[in-house]
## 1
Amino acid sequence: MSTISLHDTHNHDNHDDHGHHKETFLTKYVFSQDHKMIAKQFLITGIIMAVIAMGLSILFRLQLAWPDKDFPILETFLGKWAEGGRIKPDFYLALVTIHGTIMVFFVLTAGLSGTFSNLLIPLQIGARDMASPFLNMLSYWFFFMACVIMMSSFFIQTGPASAGWTVYPPLSALPTAISGSGLGMTLWLISMVLFVASSLMGGINYVSTILNMRTKGMDLWKMPLTIWAFFLTAVLGILSFPVLVAGVVLLIFDRSFGTSFYLSDIVMGTQILPNEGGSPILWQHLFWFLGHPEVYIVIMPAMGLSSEIMSVNARKPIFGYHAMIYSLIGITILSFIVWGHHMFVTGMNPLLGGVFMITTLIIAVPSAVKTFNWLATLWRGNIRFTPAMLFAIGMVSFFISGGLTGIFLGNASLDINLHDTYFVVAHFHLVMGSAAIFGMLAGVYHYFPKMFGRMMSKKLGYLHFWITFACAYLVFFPLHFLGLDGVPRRYYAFTEFEFMHKWVTVNILVTWSAIIAALAQVAFLFNFFYSIFKGKVATQNPWGANTLEWTTPVERLHGNWPGEIPTVYRWPYDYSKPGAEEDFIPQTVPFSQTMNSNMPHDFEGNSESERIQREWEAKNTPEDAPKLD
């Protein structure tokens, strides 16, 4: 109790007068230390990067669908990289590389976690701001610099990095290997180091804030699932991202200082290089030690957001709250011991491969627990189909359909045949890409009133959802069949081999679906930016939710609450409780005010005074019950 009091005092003493500081344009909008403004900066930067990545994907899909056709407009925009209106093979690989890098790291990691961890952690746990607002500001600007450096590689003579988003050596380790191995790769490496620095600053801040700055009564078992997801995501990032930096440092040594960590017995043209003793497999171990936790760094915030949104809009308590938390913890722990399933074809000892196969299949169990709990939450719920709810349900759909193919790829005997085919592309674009994007969009629609004080258009939201949902399946589901037929990923044209010819028509369908999906995002972008300025003004709690963020005023306030921070008495999912006057009971309502709906299990784990009150209530009439402070 004394710890909570100290934190509570800290929150009030140090942050009460934030609203009285004289703010300039720079301190309010650019170098802001307010977590809500930083969340908006992450979100809008993430949206811009997503639009760029989507544009790159349309470019290389044009090449795959019509490999023998010229598009003169491409030369206008891309210059020497598309002479005669046809994308060059080395630039095609650069497009694939930068598209993957932007989506995985800049949109789904920084855009998703950076936005919603910043927005919701202080608001949902009852804190004035982050543990270190200055560090929080720095984390955004490091991310912004990483984005700028990555995009600057399109404007250099040799072009962007070209080695796939996993940047495997030797293409990444030899600056003279191909044009994209030169300065473009150096910029990629610098950008990623800045990005990791940003992620670590953010992650340390998120963990510190959640552990130290919860309001009175907010114990770990009263935290919303969003906070649990952000907390465990930050832990994953803190433990796994430094390994990528170690790998990048060794790669820079190989590129610039003549070392041989990843290189051995290389012949360039007619020249035998002096490198010996290194192994490109070392890079794979270091990269995938981050790479697989990264999958969960991407999907867990989307899981947390979708859990919260489904409970609010199904007007039901989340099913299996404790099981959801334990499954998140299970995913966090197991994600560190599955990276080898990306490496079954590297000559790995079959015994070790068997160990990685078992852990990979075991990690499907907590994922299945979450899936069943979401479905049980929806079952017989009084569902409100808001755009946010539709995107949350869409997230579950993609997680199931994409996750099932993960069982195939986790099995070594099947993966060896499917490795580096379009089956893998289909799998991770559904389970990680589409599911995480839909979770992120659900969060944007749901929390837009909290961020901007206005409502987004429902009609445009429905249009955006249905077109995007249908097109995402049309883009990625057919790719499974290409993979089963052995079509390799990252190939420039499907006309090079006879057996691939039959798949060109499927690629045309996929490309048209991708173009339509891209056009659907125009509806979202218009809805988003128009609603910031012209949307209907939001009420304080437009969704009838229980969590603390909806107790703050609609207008922006640095410090979140104008007076005392509310005290928390109950868990965040008291929806449609028998005997209650309304179908939701906020966390700030004491049990003494809800006599008709209190249940025996409500008092488990609560404070001593509430247990005493429970005993008192058993002997007295509800009308005479004392009020708890």
## 2
Amino acid sequence: MSTATDTKRKAPAGEKVADWADGRLGIYSLAKANMRKIFPDHWSFMLGEICLYSFIIIILTGVYLTLFFHPSMNEVVYHGPYEPMQGIQMSEAYASTLDISFDVRGGLLVRQIHHWAALIFLAGMFVHMMRVFFTGAFRKPREINWLFGFLLFVLGMFTGFTGYSLPDDLLSGTGVRFMQGAILSMPIVGTYLSMFLYGGEFPGGDIIARFYSVHILLLPGIMMGLLVAHLILVFYHKHTQFAGPGRTNKNVVGMPLLPVYMAKAGGFFFLVFGVIAAISGIASINPIWAIGPYRPDQVSTGAQPDWYMGFSEGLIRVMPGWEINLWGHTLVLGVLVPLMIFPMVLAAIAVYPFIESWVTGDKREHHILDRPRNAPTRTAFGVAWITWYFVLLVGGGNDLWATHFHLSINAITWFVRIAFFVAPVLAFIATKRICLGLQRRDKEKVLHGRESGLIKRLPHGEFVEVHEPLSPAQLHTLTAHEQYVPVEIGPLVDENGVKRKVSVLQKVRAKLSQGYYGENNQIAKPSAEEYKEITDGHGHH
């Protein structure tokens, strides 16, 4: 006769291992609490997944490339498989990159995948951050997560810069020289920083080795920590969702993480990997063998950075070459001013959630996303910034625009200088008007229904279009957004006629709040009385 002890003794080995691990790590309870986490199903939430999967692909391909790359600036004479370079003097870094491209099995494909994944990683983060910005997903309690995402983007930019500088070809060397010129423009400390970074006079002998350490250890390590923290906060705060029936700030409507979402995520990972691999196999990127090794006395034609550095490049290219002399020191304003603008813009992006929270005075938690049209001022700011970015991207590639479209490079430069100030303002005004127009259209839909295209003649001869009433779900979606009341300073004197003290910050806050939510900045939602009057047949339908 079997006993309970015999049954326990016959438990499968896998179950014993699971019990052992759970007793020491608490895996079962952790998994039970989190594996049924609900995630909403919307295509825009996949943007963050593209970033995550691209980062994984970058790590995997980067590990493979480190096995064959030699981060050294020691001079060697090339005797490898690429015939046109035979007998040419170059650095070990450049020679090993040629070997990876032509001698290592699959090396060129892995190089291409690594570079394309980096571009898609940063593009994905850019679009993902814009989705978070336009929908207001950065509001409490997600301000810290916005900062984590912002830091991931900035660190990704510098990781990409150090990465494409490693082959020591003429294109990347020109970029490193460009960076050195920017460092030298810094007053007082520029020369010291340059000597420290390059290990002596440019180009020095240590820059590739130093960039290599930063590229494969320091920056990826920090990014990995930020990414883990970012995902932990996503789990902790629960996922945001768009307004809809049954969706509130206290629940999430969607599918469980396991098994539905995990299955979809696994398939999407291989889809992203496949698309990146296909692009890498079709479109050549950074063909260093066609550019040649770096020489300090040469400059590559059409020298362009990757797209994410075009903003800073454009600032410097279109800035007039102004200089001033102070106390025996020459300040190169043509480089120094862009170097000051660039971090100021980044800082403004980083702290925007805190600025909007201060302007609105809203300290509540938000888990329901805004439709961009319902926050016209915020949306207009975002579009203005993107417009500014692309204007400077044109400036960063002014030589290519000139050669490809047979334009004057001076005309392009002056266009960018003018558009730098004019284009964001025009984009802001146009976007705000479009958002308000869309709000008016939503209001008309709620009150009168959707246009059906059917024309009906009334008994007295008038022709009208038949409108189809919206479903309750559609009505909820179009009217679920909040309408903020602008902050008011209040009376400047109290009930006794004594003048109140109003600080400058209070005045600024009231002015900004009026600009965000005052008159002509949002369209009033239809009231229940208006809707009842229309649907009862007393209004024009």
## 3
Amino acid sequence: MSAKYIFVTGGVVSSLGKGLAAASIGCLLEARGIKVNLMKFDPYLNVDPGTMSPFQHGEVFVTDDGAETDLDLGHYERFTHAKLTRDNNLTTGRIYEQIITKERRGDYLGKTVQVIPHVTNEIKNAMRKVAADCDVALVEIGGTVGDIESLPFLEAIRQMRQELGRDNTCFVHMTLVPWIAAAQELKTKPTQHSVKEMLSIGIQPDILLCRADRAVPREMRSKIAAFCNVEEKAVIIARDVPSIYEVPLNLAEQGVDALALKYLRIDTHDANLSKWQDIVHRAYNPQDDVSIAIVGKYVEYEDSYKSLKEALVHGALSHNLKLKVTWIEAEGLETRGEDGRRNNDFYTQLEGFDGILVPGGFGKRGIEGMLNAIRYAREHKVPYFGICLGMQTACIEYARNVCGLKDANSGEFDPATPHRIIYKLRELTGVEEMGGTMRLGAWACVLEPGSLAAKAYGTTEISERHRHRYEFNREYEAILTGAGLRLTGTTPDATYVEIVEIPGHPFFLGCQFHPEFKSKPLEPHPLFRDFVGAAYKNRRTVEATESADMLVE
């Protein structure tokens, strides 16, 4: 039987959590034994988010096949077992690129190319491709109803209902029920107007997810149902929760999955959510906490590091710990007090953390601050985890402060440096185009037996996802390894260095890949699990030492 579809749309305002809602519904369907796939349509004209500022769009999530995609695909992978590719995220830009390519080839046989049917057909074909090997495909439409750029996507899903029938399609619409402080009231009018806008383009929502920051009275739910022409039990309150991993349980409690399956005429067994219940129990009942400082370039907008934050949460949950993250702007760590004194300098900002992490990024802004943070972690034996740029800066810091190469740098930050510890990928020499030209997607890596990485993974052969334009310069390998740095992970052909470590340190590891993209709440990534474990162990050691010193005094 061909797949059935659940379409997730949004109204009133953006950023209500459509991606999280789609991922949670997918999670609940999987728990009932249904094979799902998920996709996201983004209305913007960029071909993909790869060249967009993290401040504009947040994180760029990377799939195994090297696609640079929307961060919602990270939610899809963390909540389900769907194998996502570049086909699971399409933008208006990419769709128009495909259509224009066909037009130039003459595929349309001289016809006038229009939004209907050509653009909408391209959108529907993309949906069918993703749904080819699953029972239910969840399709999220980015933006909000009423946006000009979203109209072709909404028209396409309206046509899908016409072509497939009501038993094969289900519309889930997410809206806002705001609390007006001055009136001390929740208001349903924004939801009513949003549904009215959907009706004006021919789509009647089947299920309403009403985002609210507090409980919504039953009479208000009845009012929404009456005005929006849905069953009362189909008015679901998507209330704010401290942990996003509670969202599937909240939706299950209100019967979202049962409703969707009823509308789609699918019979299944009950969902087994015991593992998710255990995760939420641990999230709300930690034995202790662990504090991690993230020293980055885009910390003003936390969505820039969405997968990273969640991977740290997964690592903490695996040890039954509460994660306490402090976001530190790298540029703010570039100063030292006079004569190295620790007043009003980066020392005071870094003291007291159990672990320090430097994530990925591009450009030279904040690099000196990152180098100071890495030096602090290395010299003070604070567990350190460097990812992508965090590995590259760790190598530069080691070259400068351990090997004595004072002007060591990356060709990205200083093209004239006499010691290019990091330089542009050899295959990218002469390539100036920015979009999709990096080393992207899953690549194999061989680990040195007995290394921190090998112990974490429990194997010496791994595959991880990459997104970088620069690499470690192996001409400096002998100098750095001679001074104590270990290169513990390389590609099978030994071309690229993938992991560096410092032996004798509680935990000092830098990796060129992005392990955060493969971490799940039920399957924490080994490197994050061990980094958080080392950070907590280090904290306990420091506390024990301080207690012993106090007893001596």
